[in-house]
Specification:
The protein has 346 residues and is mainly alpha-helical. Helix content is 79%, strand content 0%.
């Protein structure tokens, strides 16, 4: 039903790159081909190569370089009159905006990318852009608004037999079920995503699926060692492919699993590692979630009650400003966990 996974963001002379290519290799090859296209006066090819450069920088956590690269790709595509390439550049920019926590900008850029993709006749970039909009809404906790869009995109991906996009949609829907307490349904969807990604040789998608399975095994079954084993498998993939963001989220999940098991000192170490990684790549959502886990671990290890209250209050304000509804609810539950609901911190 599904063929081997491919990376549609690797275009032009870079189509030979694999979905599993090391991001360091993608960046090196993309930069070389980008400069060659610029020297040859081929803006269309420069736009396509620039897209791969932008995505490599983004996934490596090099935010400023990624921002410059997607904008340069868009300018080159516009010069070439290539509407589809313009859409891909906007998709990359919108994805970067979401990663940076700039959600209004992400909505705007991804919406424009979807429109241009349709106008340019590129169903793949249209689908990826709509998926980006769905993921933005999911991350913000607006499940009702984007749940049906996730299901629609899953159906489209299944019809086309596109493994990578199917896996993405399954993982997004699974995450919503997990966050609303439907653990059995979440596990089944993560399991299907893991199976499809393994058969399609989509190592990135498989690493995220293993992370999801580990989370459910931990929270539903208390299966700490099984969960940690899956996370360590995924961590190996993340390191081999230089998946900086996925690696940081993996470390944060290791902290979650250890915290649930009452292994607070170990959890603290994982959260501290994840926090440093997220700060390096300027990813505010991951930073806030790591701060939350760290605050809870430190509280369990005897941190002063007033310091915990102040940290949670500051996190609540940060998440309120950023529009991360589900994460804000997590802070509320943390305050309840430590009996801090009545604490007022100015």
């Amino acid at each position: 039903m599904y063929g081997k996974a491919f990376a549609p963001e690797y275009q032009g002379t870079l189509t030979t790159l694999s979905v599993n290519s090391s991001l360091v290799d993608v960046l090196a090859e993309g930069t070389e081909q980008l400069h060659a296209a610029q020297r040859a006066g081929r803006p269309g090819e420069a736009a396509r190569c620039g897209l791969a450069v932008a995505e490599a920088h983004r996934r490596l956590g090099q935010v400023r370089d990624a921002d410059r690269a997607w904008k340069a790709s868009y300018r080159a595509a516009r010069e070439a009159g290539d509407t589809a390439a313009m859409a891909w550049a906007l998709w990359s920019g919108g994805t970067l905006a979401r990663q940076r926590g700039a959600f209004p900008l992400a909505w705007r850029l991804l919406g424009l990318a979807a429109e241009l993709g349709e106008r340019g006749g590129d169903v793949v970039v249209r689908g990826y852009s709509l998926a980006g909009l769905a993921e933005t809404g999911r991350i913000q906790g607006d499940y009702e608004a984007v749940g049906r869009l996730h299901e629609q995109l899953l159906a489209e991906a299944r019809r086309r037999g596109e493994a990578r996009h199917t896996v993405w949609a399954l993982e997004g829907i699974a995450q919503m079920h997990r966050n609303t307490g439907a653990y059995d349904r979440a596990y089944a969807l993560f399991e299907e995503a893991a199976e499809i990604s393994a058969r399609a040789e989509d190592r990135r998608g498989h690493a995220w699926a293993l992370r999801g399975l580990a989370d459910v095994l931990s929270v539903r079954d208390g299966a700490t060692e099984r969960a940690l084993d899956l996370l360590h498998q995924a961590e190996t993939t993340c390191r081999e492919m230089n998946l900086s963001s996925a690696l940081a989220y993996n470390h944060k999940m290791q902290g979650n699993v250890l915290y649930r098991a009452g292994r607070y000192a170990e959890a603290r170490e994982r959260y501290e590692l994840a926090l440093a990684e997220f700060r390096t790549m300027s990813e505010p959502r991951g930073e806030a979630l790591s701060r939350l886990g760290l605050a809870k671990s430190l509280a369990r290890l005897g941190r002063d009650r007033a310091e915990t209250a102040a940290e949670l209050a500051d996190l609540a304000r940060t998440l309120e400003r950023s529009g991360l509804r589900h994460a804000r609810e997590m802070v509320t539950r943390a305050r309840q966990e430590f009996g801090l609901e009545a604490e007022v911190v100015r």
